Amino acid sequence: MEPVVRPNAAHGQPMVRIHGLWSVFEGAERKTVVHQDLALEVAQGEVLSIVGGSGTGKTVLLRQILGLESPARGEIEVLGRPVAELGRAGAASCIGMLFQHGALFSAFSVLENIAFPLRELKGLPPALVREAAMVKLQMVGLEPEDGDKMPADLSGGMIKRAALARALVLDPPLLLLDEPTAGLDPESSDGFVTLLRTLHRDMALTVVMVTHDLDTLFELSTRIAVLADRRVIVAATPREVIAFQHPFIHDFFLGERGQRAMELLREYPFAV
Questions:
Q1: Could you tell me if 174 and 154 are in contact, meaning their C-beta atoms sit under 8 angstroms apart?
Q2: Which phi and psi (to 5°) does residue 252 adopt?
Q3: Domain residue limits, the chain
Q4: CA-CA distance, 42 to 132, in Å (whole number)?
Q5: Which distant-in-sequence residues (6+ apart) come within 8 Å of 217 by Cβ?
Q6: Would you give the DSSP letter of residue 34?
């Protein structure tokens, strides 16, 4: 089937626009093409989830949107500006990133981790930096006393929340999530997904998420983009994606997890 990339026009102009994207990695003996002429748009206010098999470059795409990696060819725009032209401070001001394992600085306290982007990029007075970091600490459901703890003293769920607070401390309009519930027990995962839904609504965030977890995928996503055959083969509502004929989609949604996928289709209205 031909690719189906359906925009979510109800949410306004694109927050992210990717066109003509090629990602090529040099190996010892040959080049590997991960993305080939990939195209995708993310509308303001939506939650777009990216799924795909191993080696399809899901996290690579997030890192390219953030500007941490550069594609071999093509362009990525955020808020109408090429990411390559934003610079470190510009990218940090409009894009927040929650890495899969949190990526907290082990030598910094929780509050110091959250405050790091403010201190490094904004040059604010220390008292104001601490106050702003404390607001975000409590926004993600952590207690004021948690700010003095070190990352090694935190549970997996607390690490995720602290890393999320750091990702949001500059109030970026765009949030990138790499496997946000990976490694969490069911109770912590449910609480974190609820937090993400609340922040998406209250902060008017646009979210791009990579996840393999069906519950997280169906509860949060307004659209799903599927990476296969080196490109986005479909980007549409969950129901439309499941109906798309492709071997990966059949195996991912309708294989062993098919019953759960059908239950989730009935449970969630896909309107965040």
A1: no
A2: -75, -45
A3: 4-104+173-267
A4: 29
A5: 49, 51, 211, 224, 238
A6: E
Q: Which amino acid would we find at residue 234?
A: V
pTM: 0.91
Q: What is the pLDDT of residue 207?
A: 97
pLDDT along the chain (272 residues), means of 10: 52 84 85 95 96 94 93 94 85 90 91 92 87 96 95 94 96 96 93 96 96 92 95 94 91 82 76 47
Does the domain made of 4-104+173-267 have the CATH classification 3.40.50.300? yes
* Dist CA 22 CA 76 (whole Å): 11
The alpha helices in the chain, defined as continuous H runs, are 58-66, 83-94, 110-121, 126-139, 156-168, 186-202, 214-220, 238-243, 247-254, 258-267
To which residue do tokens 């993600």 refer?
Answer: 140
